[in-house]
Design brief:
The complex is a heterodimer. Chain A is about 25% helix and about 25% strand. By secondary structure, chain A is α/β, with parallel strands linked by helices. In chain A, helix 5 links the parallel strand 7 and strand 8. Chain B is mainly alpha-helical. Chain B is globular, with a radius of gyration of 26 Å. Classes of the chains: A alpha/beta, B mainly alpha.
Chain lengths: ~250, ~350
């Protein structure tokens, strides 16, 4: 009685301009699971996530989303994507609420105004990441960690069945890492399905059901989280927790 | 109907003799049409511009203007109605630009340069072949002239303006989502290519609406400068969109009226007016930042509301209660908390996070 598969990639290979970055990947994420994808820089973690989301084409292999072949899957909103934080905003100011509301668009017809249900979902998503006080603030004025939480709220606003987060704690100061971990813990307690890309397990370790380690484009480990598990080919020590402190982006 | 190029030359004499006895602005049919055209472009250009600026493509309108010029020349040569041929050329150019961008290959900017300069070169060469045509005839198209808008132009402009405004305002949330984070929009299942093509076509249409009063080389300024001005004053995308449209309307109609009295080319006058307003706002906001006295420090993020149960010690401070929080004091201020200090001299420099 295993839970239904949410994302399944069988014998996947992914590459850019004909050169394979990932080979022989068999990956399954089941409903209710919390899986962390570990690996060093350049191991192909982000590429795998982008392939699962259909953002890069497969060179070979078979991808199913919620049991439907990827090409025939049209309910993309069911997968909430939290990309690695990019530089804040565009050329025009936008409030936290406006950015989060863009996560609600797949539920809206073009030209249709926001219904009260949409508005409630947006406010709830903002509250989940504890940014209600900042809802009307220009996102460009927030710290890196706060911006990361905005992106999580944007994904949550679509009320997805699974959340895919690409290095949510990268470049985030310690205080915000703790808030992020608390937010993720709440989501896990609520029974969310999560796929996280990370350098290391760090404070997330107790939440994780399964770890998949990528090395040079192949999976080298797929199993339960064991203490001290590492991505294998790095040169720093286990206690290096990436306490990178975000510089002010003002 | 090869009358268009001729009206350009006679027009200047009309307006210069008009300054002598100063008749009312609206006594002339051409002024009524010019003001209506200004109203349409004043609203549409910033509504497109806000999306273009959001994508950091502020100069794309300029390129579209170059391409539209080839269409103008073809129209002058063949039918004498350059507006529709300009529209066709600009739309083809816009779609080509978007497809080049979507492929995302290196060398894309070189492809765009070839397209843009090809357009303007073809325009100059073709128009020289028109009856009595010299490159000087292009001036009115490039920089705008108030006397050139015809009745049928206005009809085309009005239709285009309605289409563009419906798209830019009605689809603003979607266009915003795509410009803000294209990869996310794609992952969420939005029709990114379709929305991008639609925006490109709206840029092209805006360029065409502008070709009479603002001019093909100056329209980009009317897309960008009101947006740049508005975003100094407001903090949300929606407010920027609406305020920029208001600014565009004022400078565009005001510029046409000024150009009538001052006997100057309308396009340049409109753009100078827009830039003057921008400069004023920049100085005003700069001064406000220097002299503002009501600085206060917003406290760090709060995961809880301070209150009797939060465990932080309440402290009476003048007319309200602060809460001791890790050695400093928090006071409720609207939706957030402020840092409060005992002595004004304890107050650090504002906004040094």
């Amino acid at each position: 009685m295993t839970a239904p598969a949410v994302l399944t990639l069988a014998d996947g290979a992914v590459g850019y301009q004909g050169r394979a970055v990932l080979r022989e990947i068999d990956f399954t994420l089941r409903s209710g699971e919390v899986v962390v994808l570990l690996g060093a820089n350049g191991s192909g973690k982000s590429t795998l996530v982008r392939a699962l989301l259909g953002l890069v084409p497969l060179m070979r292999g078979h991808l199913e989303l919620f049991g439907v072949p990827a090409g025939k899957f049209h309910e993309r909103w069911r997968i909430g994507y939290v990309p690695q934080r990019h530089s804040a905003g565009g050329g025009v100011p936008a409030t936290v609420r406006e950015v989060v509301a863009s996560g609600r668009l797949p539920h809206k017809r073009p030209f249709a105004p926001m219904r009260s249900r949409d508005r409630a979902a947006v406010e709830h998503a903002i509250a989940t990441v504890s940014l209600t006080e900042k809802a009307a603030t220009n996102v460009a004025l927030l710290s890196g960690g706060q911006q990361q939480r905005v992106l999580i709220a944007r994904a949550l606003a679509g009320e997805p069945d699974v959340l895919v987060l690409d290095e949510p704690t990268a470049g985030v100061d310690l205080a915000n890492q703790q808030i992020l971990a608390a937010t993720l813990r709440e989501l896990v307690t609520a029974g969310s399905t999560l796929l996280l890309v990370a350098h290391e397990l760090g404070p997330l370790e107790p939440l994780v059901d399964r770890v998949v380690v990528l090395r040079e484009g192949r999976t080298t480990y797929d199993g339960p989280a064991v203490p001290g598990l590492h991505h294998g080919n790095d040169h720093h020590h286990g206690d290096d927790r990436h306490h990178r402190v975000e510089l002010s982006d003002r | 109907m090869a009358t268009t190029t001729i009206t350009v030359t006679t027009a200047t004499t009309v307006s210069s003799s008009a300054t002598a006895d100063m008749p009312e602005l609206l006594d002339y049919g051409f002024m009524q049409r010019a003001l209506l055209a200004a109203l349409l472009i004043g609203l549409t250009a910033p509504s497109v511009g806000v999306h273009v600026v959001q994508r950091r493509l502020a100069l794309i309108g300029d390129g579209m203007g170059h391409v539209a010029l080839a269409g103008v020349a073809v129209g002058v040569l063949t039918t004498g109605r350059p507006v529709l041929t300009a529209l066709v050329a600009a739309v083809i150019g816009a779609v080509a630009v978007e497809l080049v961008r979507a492929r995302g290959r290196t060398g894309g900017d070189v492809a765009l340069a070839v397209l843009f300069y090809g357009g303007i070169a073809a325009g100059v060469v073709l128009i020289s072949q028109a009856e009595g045509g010299t490159p000087a005839n292009l001036t009115a198209y490039l920089f705008g002239a108030i006397t050139t808008t015809t009745q049928s132009d206005l009809v085309v402009f009005a239709v285009l303006a309605v289409v563009v405004l419906t798209g830019t305002v009605g689809l603003a949330p979607r266009l915003f989502a795509v410009s803000n984070d294209e990869e996310y929009a794609r992952a969420a299942g939005l029709h990114v290519l379709g929305l991008n093509l639609m925006l490109a076509v709206m840029v092209a249409s805006t360029v065409v609406i502008s070709m009479r009063v603002v001019g093909l080389l100056l329209v980009s300024a009317l897309m960008v400068v009101p947006v740049a001005t508005a975003q100094l004053l407001v903090g949300s995308f929606r407010a920027t969109l609406l305020l920029a449209m208001g600014i565009g309307l004022v400078v565009s109609v005001g510029g046409v009226a000024t150009s009538y009295y001052a006997d100057t080319p309308s396009g340049g006058t409109i753009v100078l007016l827009a830039i003057t307003l921008f400069a004023l706002v920049v100085s005003a906001t700069g001064l406000r930042r220097i002299f503002r006295r009501d600085v206060h420090d917003e406290a760090e993020d709060h995961l809880h509301q301070h209150g009797p149960e939060c465990g932080h010690e309440p402290v009476k401070h003048e007319d309200h209660t602060d809460y001791l929080h890790d050695g400093h004091r928090h006071a409720v201020h609207g939706a957030h908390y402020d840092e409060h200090y005992d002595q004004p001299s304890d107050q650090p420099q504002p906004r040094q996070h």
